[in-house]
Amino acid sequence: MKKSEEGVTLVEVLIALALLSMILLLANSVHLFVQKQMNSQVNKIQVQSDERLAIGLITKEIRKAETVETNHLNELIINETDVYKLKSTTLTKNNEPFISNIKKFTVKKRGNQVTLKIGSLPETIIYLRE
Q1: Whole-structure pTM over 0.90, yes or no?
Q2: Nearest 5°: phi and psi at 78?
Q3: Which of 9, 26, 101, 123 is paired with 108 by a 20 to 30 Å CA distance?
Q4: Within a domain: residue 95?
């Protein structure tokens, strides 16, 4: 009778564990990379959404306004009562938070034309009725 060799050796177990560890490490690296990319994209989308919301609301206010003024501090004054300005990354209306995640707010008025730039959106020109 021949002696049967069943089971695995310690070397085979160690090699299998090393291979499994490398595969799991690679899968974890891919997962972390995808997670970082997703978070980055979600943040960019949120910023763009906030910028579009801000420009839409302010444009609507300007079009309904009786008077629109600006000053050298990039403040937009509508109907002599509502003052819009950027504080840090929050656009404020009458010193109350209006919309956050805004990195840039510039406004200029020349004659009956108001030029508005919010964040990375293209410059918007609004013509006032006289």
Answers
A1: no
A2: -115, 130
A3: 101
A4: yes
Residue 65 amino acid letter: A
CA distance 42 to 101: 13
18: pLDDT strictly greater than 90: yes
The span from the CA of 123 to the CA of 91, in Å, is 17
Over the range 93-126, which residues count as b (16 or more CB within 10 Å of their CB) and which as e?
beeeebbebbeebebebeeeebebbbbeeeebeb
Residue type, 53: L
